[in-house]
Amino acid sequence: MPESSIRGRLRWISESPLSLYLTVLVLIVLPLVIFSVRTDRHESEQIIRQEMSSSENVTTLASMLIEEHFRQSIVLLESYAKDPEFQGEWQRHAIDTVNRHMELAHSLQSDSSLFSVYGPDGTMRSIAPMDATLIGQSFAYRDWYKGVTKQGKPYVSEVYRTRAAPQTLAVAVAVPIKDTQGKLIGIIAAAYSLDRISQWLSEVPESAGRTIVVVDQRGRMIATPGIDVTAPPADLSSHTAVKKVLAGETGTYEFKQPETSSTGKKNPHGRENYFISYRPISAFGWGVLTYVPSSTVYGRISEMRRQNVIFAVNLLLLAVVGSLLIGYLSKRQQKLKQQLEALSYSEGRYRSLLDNATLGIFRSAQHGFVYANESMAKMLGYDSVAELLALDVEKELFVDPADRRKIREKYEAGAPFVFEEVRFKRKNGSTINLRLSGRSVRSPLTGELEFELLTEDISERRALEAQLRQAQKMDAIGRLAGGVSHDFNNLLTVITGYTDLALESLEAEDPLRSELQEVKNAAQRASTLTRQLLAFSRRQLLEPRVLNLTTVVERIHGMLRRLLGENIQLQYKLDPQLGSVRADPGQMDQVVVNLAVNARDAMQAQGGGRLMIETSNVVIDQAYAREHLNVKTGPHVMLSVSDSGSGMDAETIAQIFEPFFTTKLSEQGTGLGLSTVYGIVQQSGGHIGVESQVGRGTSFKVYLPRVEEEPQRGTSLETATLLRGKETILLVEDEDAVRELTRQILHRAGYNVLTADTASRALELAREPEDKIDLLLTDMILQEMTGSDLAQYVHHLAPQIHVLFMSGYTADSAFIGKVDSHLNLLQKPFTSEQLLRKVRTALDH
Among 347, 417, 542, 839, which is 20 to 30 Å from 658 by CA? Predict the structure, then answer.
């Protein structure tokens, strides 16, 4: 087709009415349809949520209102029952005076139908308003009489029918009257007609259009606006919502009438469906239900949809005209935003009425409290809410009054206020970290700006966060130190081993011996440094034993005495009944020595001092464990090292266990002493804490879990004197230099050595029938599998083979930081003698 013809057709399509229709369809109609569907669904859900939320608020307020009325009644009755003057008049049978009291009580509580007093046998002695026909009658059969006499405390009765005409349904609140010895001498009660309780429900705000129903413990309807108090209460116990509320549940759901009844007959048309909100009154086993007809809710939705249809039609018309579309959408969006803000305000207002919240809630004006709940008073250490309400908020509550002014400025400027952190003063003078959130309101009486706030105590959380950050920092440094130490140990093994081989080949008078010996000494010092790094990183290989820390301290007394010097007084407070712990004896020696040397250095500036070493049995409780990260509760053994030195400030304490941190001169310490102690204690499953003040000394306390086993005796390492042999050894090591060095040392000692650089190669050699292997000598960390896994495979092939492991540190799950016996592990770096001794010992056992 010619190009000109194609252009002509395209121009006709673009200029034809069809082009306009397509443009309107694509740009206006389709987005309009999508927008209408999304808006319809959103607004429908919003209306339903709003209705459910409002019903929940009405239900909550109704239950609180009923509880408050009965609580006030109990308080009034108890004020009489516990009044010594009233008790005396009652015991003297001054009935006229008692009658006047009851008339006064009835005038104070006009909500009640009557007030009455009964003898301990249930006989009525006084009643207001006066009804002489009831005086002298026995009411011992009433459940409130039985409940009070049995429980000895206030009791709310079940629904009963009154004796006096017109014999309406009522509920009674009864309180025992006891003498000074606690003996029951009477009962004072107030009765409420069910129509009076029903009138209370009409006082609930926003209850219009809703039906509020109160059910008793049996599921009977005992209160609702317009109830017939002369007819028996309706039984609603089979209703789903009633079952839920009597089971103590709170919730909201939509009840839909079934299409057929329980008899199989079709329900008549017009049966109403409801949105039902229910909440228990747990104080006396009642429940409150609020019914909203579904037709009301869906009527609002239908009206909304009708409005949306009108809106869509108008929008389509306006789209043709053009420019008014954006303005109309903006108006609708603003209207929706206002509805959401109104809903949020309504929910916040009702939530602020709940006084039993676990969070602290208060409302304050310019200088003082307007309202506060019990949780707020307890949080700040006050005995009562009244005591808290008497405070000046800005001067007596805020640690920094500027925080109060900053919050007020935010509110007055209309800025959002969410999760502001402040410090409050408690009654005892201590401070507490709180997180505040809330809103400002204008008092309807004074017009003054007031603040409605929720408070959460975050003091413990902030302390734990600081400990967690410190632990994460220490762990990161430890991982770095452990990784460097592992690789460094392999290098030191090669240096030490070849130095030993070179020394063996030289004559005693050879001048190179002294130089090589210095190389060996330097390697040994480097080995000591790597062990300290591994101790801090909690990756060193421990050899735990069941031991007694008192015995450890007594054993190294001589060493401590020499280290401390004569200007330091060494004192002990050792528990002879100290429990046992599971730890490495050598590492525990190092813990005590390092702490003692650290204390000595702290006391040198003042020319000496006193060092106290103490051991005792302790039990770590939940309170201590909550304040310290990764601390387990239960029985522990405590080792305390305290000095009278210069002490430390808080900044120094925060870094005291970090490697290479020291307050000494550079030539006086490496900064690894306390970090080594920290790593040993942590790896042993314990905890170390420090307490110090500048100028008042320092106390380190080590806590180790207590075990119920008896301390073990040490096993001698001198198990073999002949270090040579002719057995066959399978050597598995992936580091070439270490593998070759180890092979040479074993070969010179007369052993037949088979080498493998991988686990798979080692398994191939183990399967060779002509090679009878006596010992598997393997590194713990291999590329294909761990050394312990390789040992299991080899044992499966040849159970008689002995095993000796090598490692600078091990990440194998079976050997994390500890081994059951030093006889099956060779720690890098090692000397030729150490290698041959371990090999000989492993073969001979």
Answer: 542
